[in-house]
Amino acid sequence: MSQRADTVVKFPIGRVVREHRILIALGATPELAAIDRSAISIRRAIETLRRQQATLNLLAARARKNETPEQHAAAVAKNMRRIYACEAEDRAAGAAAPPASTGARRRLRELVDRLDAEAGDTDDGGSAA
Questions:
Q1: Is the CA virtual torsion 79, 81, 82, 84 positive or negative?
Q2: d(CA 129, CA 127)
Q3: Which residues, including other chains, have CB under 8 Å from residue 122's CB and lie 6 or more apart?
Q4: DSSP assignments along 5-42, one per residue
Q5: 126 — alpha (psi -120 to 50), left (phi > 0) or beta?
Q6: Residue 16: which of 52, 40, 33 has the closest Cα?
Q7: Residue 41, C-beta contacts closer than 8 angstroms, at least 6 positions apart
Q8: How far apart, in Å, are the Cα atoms of 113 and each of 18, 94, 102?
Q9: DSSP state of 120
Q10: 6-60 confidence digits (pLDDT tens)
Q11: pLDDT digit string (tens) for 56-110?
Q12: Could you give the angle at the alpha carbon of 70 between the alpha carbons of 64 and 72, nearest 5°?
């Protein structure tokens, strides 16, 4: 079955909706009809994804319920190893960067003060009075 090129509108929105045939509707432009159809398709896709999410949540709860204490302890230990590794990377990155010198901090403060003055910003973050 061949399609006429002028009856198909393509939307660059990924896998949810790719194209729609334009139905001839009285009083509606072809673009409006295609947009309405794509909105309906996206709404249906979102509903389907929500149902799939609810199913996965139920399956995950059932799997957690059947988990043994040893499996839970192993999962917790694995997660903590990952967290400790990330913290170690952060500490190593922080130690690698030398602290800013007093002169650099002073120049940075002067630059910020000058930019605030040019912008007319008089709020110094202090009291509201």
A1: positive
A2: 5
A3: 116
A4: GGGEEE--STTS--EEEPP--TT--HHHHHHHHHHHHH
A5: beta
A6: 40
A7: 16, 17, 20
A8: 52, 27, 16
A9: T
A10: 555 555 555 544 455 545 555 567 777 788 888 888 888 899 999 999 999 999 9
A11: 999 999 998 999 999 999 999 999 999 999 999 988 887 766 667 888 888 889 9
A12: 35
Are 16 and 42 within 8 A, CB to CB?
yes
Annotated domain spans of the chain:
1-66, 68-97
- The predicted pLDDT at position 11 comes to 53
How many CA atoms, within 13 angstroms, populate the side-chain half-sphere of residue 8? Answer: 8
Q: How far is the first Cα of the chain from the last one, in angstroms, to the nearest whole number?
A: 75
Handedness of CA 12, 14, 16, 18 (dihedral sign): positive
Tell me the two tokens of residue 33. Answer: 């009809």
pTM over 0.85: no
What three-state secondary structure class fits 104? Answer: helix
Calpha distance 116→120 (Å, rounded): 6
3-state class of 2 per DSSP?
coil
